[in-house]
Design brief:
mainly alpha, globular, two-stranded antiparallel sheet, ABC transporter involved in vitamin B12 uptake, BtuC
Length: 302
């Protein structure tokens, strides 16, 4: 019984960590390119989920196949979230690109508050039912009491997205340009790299991972609210710092460590302290290893 409870907590932490990873990938990519902590990133996660809910509700009246509805809802929600992210970057961040980091940070917090209240006014402040988009796989029926098909899809999606992003950034022309901009924006611009395009691409990739995470976790929890992105975004930021912000493998590793810590902490200690573990991790990592688990320390010359 104790071992089965341990496995249940392990799988629950795996699911949490996978969702945090999908969000923290966006944080770490944006920070790596323009050194900005995009605190409105969690709201893209929320907007993607709400968009999928609206599209699913509309398509349900057409009599379409459930799998086709799920595919279209996820695809269109990703496109809509990407458009939102690019627009947000152009309006709130681009004008402050050459300003102080504090100005951009305040702008990001302002965008987060604006988007939360914007969706609350358009929708509702109550929790809404979110339909299950992932069908139950036949081979999962033996373990569905501890690990569902949606949890499996969440984990597999995280692994696939991480691998694709790593390969893309390492080998593609655009990925090399992203690394050049992250290393030295001025020299990259002098080399003929379109800085604005690269930054937009970075925000698009971050919004895609966030939207996927928001849709999948809403489908798993079977409910949605305008505020779901705030705490998830903060914890994903903690995970990115824990793993080493700017590192894609680090963001994923930090997310899984945080997910398991929360799961085992709530399972063996108390669920009242679930949010405490994330911020305790943040304090400890900033004190003892500020560069993160896989991050590299940098020296600044004065």
């Amino acid at each position: 019984m104790k071992f089965s409870y341990f496995i249940e907590l392990f799988l629950s932490g795996l699911t949490k960590g996978s969702i945090y990873a999908l969000l923290s990938l966006g944080y770490t990519m944006v920070y790596g390119i323009i050194q900005l902590i995009n605190f409105a990133h969690g709201e893209i996660y929320m907007i993607g989920a709400f968009t999928a809910l609206i599209i699913t509700t509309i398509l349900a009246y057409t009599g379409m196949n459930a799998l086709a509805i799920a595919f279209l809802a996820i695809f269109l929600a990703i496109l809509y979230s990407a458009g939102y992210a690019v627009t947000m970057e152009r309006i709130a961040y681009k004008p402050l690109r050459n300003s102080t980091r504090l100005s951009a940070l305040i702008s990001a917090i302002g965008m987060s508050i604006f988007l939360q209240n914007y969706v609350r006014l358009l929708q509702t402040s109550d929790f809404l039912r979110f339909p299950p988009l992932i069908p139950e796989f036949g081979f999962m029926r033996y373990v569905e009491h501890i690990f569902t098909s949606t949890q499996l899809v969440i984990f597999v999606s995280t692994c696939v997205i991480m691998i694709i992003l790593t390969i893309f950034i390492k080998f593609s022309k655009t990925g090399k340009a992203m690394r050049a901009v992250a290393q030295d924006r001025v020299m990259a611009m002098l080399s003929g790299i379109n800085i604005n395009r690269i930054i937009s691409v970075t925000f698009i990739f971050g919004s895609v991972t966030a939207a996927v995470g928001g849709i999948l976790i809403s489908s798993y929890n079977a409910q949605i609210n305008f505020n779901i992105g705030f705490m998830a975004g903060i914890k994903a930021f903690v995970a990115a710092v824990l793993g080493g912000i700017g590192s894609i493998p680090g963001a994923v590793l930090g997310s899984f460590v945080l997910g398991w810590t929360e799961s085992f902490g709530t399972g063996y200690i108390s669920s009242d302290y679930e949010d405490v573990f994330a911020f305790l991790f943040l304090i400890l990592i900033l004190i003892f290893k500020p560069e993160g688990l896989l991050g590299r320390s940098t020296k600044q010359k004065v």
